[in-house]
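Please decode residue identities from the backbone states below.
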């Protein structure tokens, strides 16, 4: 059994929002929310949502949306962090679509994005076909 390194991602207030397990982002209910291909972040519909670089999660405009415990951002003060003590079991990881490729990354601005981290990777609602 392989051990997968897990990283907790925090929002601008220091709240734990996602976990990165391998290349898949999960919420704390164990639901897959997106994935990373190289440095590029995609949601479950393979829509480009942002970048993951040096423990920093940024939106498509390269503004900071979240960060990992190891992040250090010159020019931006990070809040104290807290990890919820919630039990979780991850649902199966989705397959990475072939069209999800690593896009060119240009250095981000050391400023917070207007986007909230919990909105970066929306929950996928089942389609009508899946409900039948």
């Amino acid at each position: 059994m392989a051990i997968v390194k897990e990283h907790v991602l925090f929002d601008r207030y220091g709240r734990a929002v996602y976990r990165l397990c391998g290349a898949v982002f999960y919420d704390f209910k164990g639901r897959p929310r997106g994935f990373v291909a190289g440095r590029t972040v995609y949601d479950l519909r393979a829509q480009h949502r942002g970048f993951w670089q040096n423990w920093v999660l940024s939106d498509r405009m390269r503004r900071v949306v979240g960060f990992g415990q190891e992040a250090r951002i010159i020019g931006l003060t990070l809040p104290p962090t807290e990890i919820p003590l919630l039990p979780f079991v991850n649902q199966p990881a989705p397959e990475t679509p072939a069209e999800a490729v690593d896009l060119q990354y240009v250095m981000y601005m050391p400023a917070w994005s207007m986007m909230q981290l919990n909105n970066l990777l929306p929950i996928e609602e089942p389609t009508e076909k899946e409900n039948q």
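Observation: Residues 6-131 form one domain.
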